[in-house]
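Write out the 3D structure for:
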Amino acid sequence: MRVLLIDPPGWQKHSINLGLSYLAGTLASENITVKILDLNNNSYSPEALDSIVSAFRPEIIGISVKTATANASARITGRLKQSFPRAVYVAGGPHISLCAEEFLKENRFFDFGIAGDGEIAFAKLAHCLMKNDADFSKVSGLCYCRDNGFIRNAPCADFVMEGLAFPSFESIINMDFRDFRYPLLTSRGCPYGCIFCCVGVISGKRWRPREPEEVVRELIEAKSKYQITSFEIMDDNFTFDLGRAKTICRLLSKEKLRLDWWCHNGLRADKLDNELLRLMKVSGCKSIAIGIESGDEAVFNAVQKGESLADVVKAAKMIKGTGLQCVGYFIVGLPGDSITSTKKTVRFQRRLGLSDYIYNIAVPYPGTKMWDFVQSSGRLLLDIKETYHFGDNAKVPFETKGLGKETIEQCYYLANHQGWVWGERDLQRIREIFRSRHHSDIKRGVFITEEGLKGITKNLKIEYSYADIIEIKLDNNLKSADIRYSIASSGTHSYFEDLFKLPQDRQHLAVNTFTQKLFIQDTDNAQEEHIRNEKLPDIAKWDKPQGKYYASRLKYMSPDTRLAENGIIYKDGIALPFSPTPQWQKDACGKIESGIAFISLSAYNPDSVYTADYLSINLGSFTRELTVHETPLQDKINSSLLEKILRQSDILFVPESLAGFAHIFSRAKMNVFYYRKDSESLALGYAILEPFLTPSAHPYCIKKLRFSQSFKTTTRNLSQLHLLVKKVMEGTGLWAQIIALVFLAGLKKLLTKIIKISR
């Protein structure tokens, strides 16, 4: 009999389906011919897929079904069923263990499903089909629909991993064993009751270990067969038995395998000690990941992990003290989560000094306590099969009475864009000062962004949740054109409100501060152009935020989605594979997104030359100047639209380079300049622009000048001079404005010195 096993495409690339490899090993030991088709790491056209299946002629086609790949699995199987109707189609994997009845009833082209441990069950099913034996009652965990009913056999109660055939990776069609990090499973099951985890439903609450000697024997065989130089432990609870874990490490050292290895599936912080960590280090371990979930005590306790945050702090300190890298896994959207608790978690994570970290969005899988919580106190927002944990395009799958979708999205943004920690206190003090001066909260703000700061207003909108913030890109190369966009101002005379309604997902505002003109740029009709062989800057000049990846800006803008079609990065003329998250040390990979080239840490070489081919977006042809269509009864002040919205704004944020512009032209109630505090993305500090005070006088904190009584008159006179010069400048050309600006800047500098001397 011939069996074809298929791993469908998903979002977790560069990983091998270990479950199918174990299945293939068991079937091969039963003298069944088996092949694995990896569609996750290899792309095949429908014609190529049909050709492979036709050439192999399988009698059984099995497909692995994870929750996130359930729809893709059904789509592929439905098409294969039409081309190869005689084959028997079997679904297995985590999603079948969770939702077998629902999935098989929705996709009737599957003949069977197998829930739970599938190796022995699949082999028994294959033998039944070979013998035309229709008595499937002896196949543990088998599920199928018959006569509009659903049958699900009981799972195997005494399944153990001991004696199970080793996984077969040579069964994978077109498998590339270069830089192959061998996935090693030493146990299954987990007895703990974390509310978000479905391992207990899928693999069982009973922890089932393998003997240490057998584990090491598998590695010896893998090194000989595949020439591996590294492996990764994939257990859900590798250190549940500390003594057994230590024995494995000692055997690794005794056999002198000299294999690097990682433990990144997540360990419990309370199941580590210094002896184990030392043995792991000596035996070749490089990095350990621990499941932390939350740094807020109340949220952490609600997860019901059975450990404490003190355990986490102690574990991280021990791991780093041993010389191992420490990675942390966190979750947003847990019961009790909030903006405040997420900020606590981020600060906690940063204090731990982790080598890396990943934040997931909570997914309420069926059979978990999280699922029950959402069912009783909230609602699902999308099909559970359309969810995945992390990434730039991760979707929030639920909301509850105390935790809305928007809040979860904001928490996820704060967790993944942590530059806000540098300016949070500044923003809080600015809010307090504004309240003391104007006896109200900040309700309207304008933020002029420099290059590379797109999206920074998300932080402000979270910090000033009650305020409307308009984000405007700084571009002093923009010129007036015949193509204009006219705003029909409402009867409220609020230019700010009219402008605030304009920007949509595919539009953004820009400003030329020299001419004080506003523009709207529409990216829906953006022109696309393929850029070839663009040489990237010296790698030493690339950004490296928190040691997660390397990033360099391209000459032109590119799509803001993370797709392989956006472009290719070349290292010494050799293309780097695409990865949506190029952060791990193990794979040399990269991506192009939003005009930035990203590469993984392992793709770094100080002596290499990096180039890029990519799809650029040209926005220039679709830029229109903003004008206001006014009625005779509306505002007749001869001023720019920019000044009109600033006059109606509570606060203006400008880069430090525009401090002079804000001093002279802004009519907002408060002007604030921002500056970079750290190389981390969006790490900004903020300072109030006070009269006569230049940004260089207070680059790292907010300072208020207390003028002596004798200079109050000088202040009022300069303010009147400012208004006079401003009215004159409204009717002058650009050069006259520049000359006046230079004059006022010099006068301000002189008066500042006089004030300092007098004080």
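The chain is about 35% helix and 25% strand.
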